[in-house]
Description:
Layout: H1 2-6, E1 25-29, H2 32-45, E2 51-55, H3 62-72, E3 88-92, E4 96-101, E5 125-129, E6 142-151, E7 154-162, H4 164-178, E8 187-189
Helix pairs in contact: 2-3, 2-4
The structure holds adenosine-5'-triphosphate and magnesium ion.
The site of magnesium ion has 6 residues, from helix 3.
Amino acid sequence: MAQATKGRAPGRAGRKPHRHLPGTWHCLSKSVAETDRLGRRIGRALQGGEIVALYGELGSGKTALVRGMAAGLGAPPEAVSSPTFVFIHEYHGRMRLAHADLYRLQSYTELPHIGLSDYDDGRTVTAIEWAEKAGHDLPADRLEIHLQHRSPGIREITFVPRGARARRLLARLRAGQLSSRRTAGQRRRTR
Ligand SMILES: Nc1ncnc2c1ncn2[C@@H]1O[C@H](COP(=O)(O)OP(=O)(O)OP(=O)(O)O)[C@@H](O)[C@H]1O
Ligand SMILES: [Mg+2]
């Protein structure tokens, strides 16, 4: 679906640029269902106004994670798809979720024109696929989520909190993870 319309085959990521950043958290997802469960946890941990910036090559699971987030917020997950021909979709659960995909952004200078700032109301959660296309113009306080192919079906997912709100979100997410026996096996490392 999204892979076909975006036109490049996914490759394997090699570098781990975030490995040593303080406060980062890594986990492995062994299936799309696990990624969905992780997304649901994120959705439940959201309190409103957070920015979630998603990085990762085509087919790495960014939309799958957002689908889980929508479900965790109580919005219908089946409505979630990569906003390939428009830049932003929105979904409504216990909070509004704005879902942007910047893949087709030609330059970060277009960013002010796609309407992302319309969602900057302190309550709407914003999830941004291909966040790297925004250059340095993303809000400073954001939770970065980097997804990397490790082998077919396996994704390494790295969380990098940038700012106080993002750190609080990640703390809630990790607390939820630690209290769950079902997903305890997903944890590989804690910093
Ligand atoms: N562990 C996994 N987590 C997430 N998706 C997985 C996993 N294993 C396999 N997949 C498959 O990888 C694909 C991920 O697609 P998805 O649309 O979520 O990627 P994306 O990162 O949003 O791509 P795009 O950059 O094109 O928007 C799906 O076909 C899904 O079934
Ligand atoms: Mg996508």
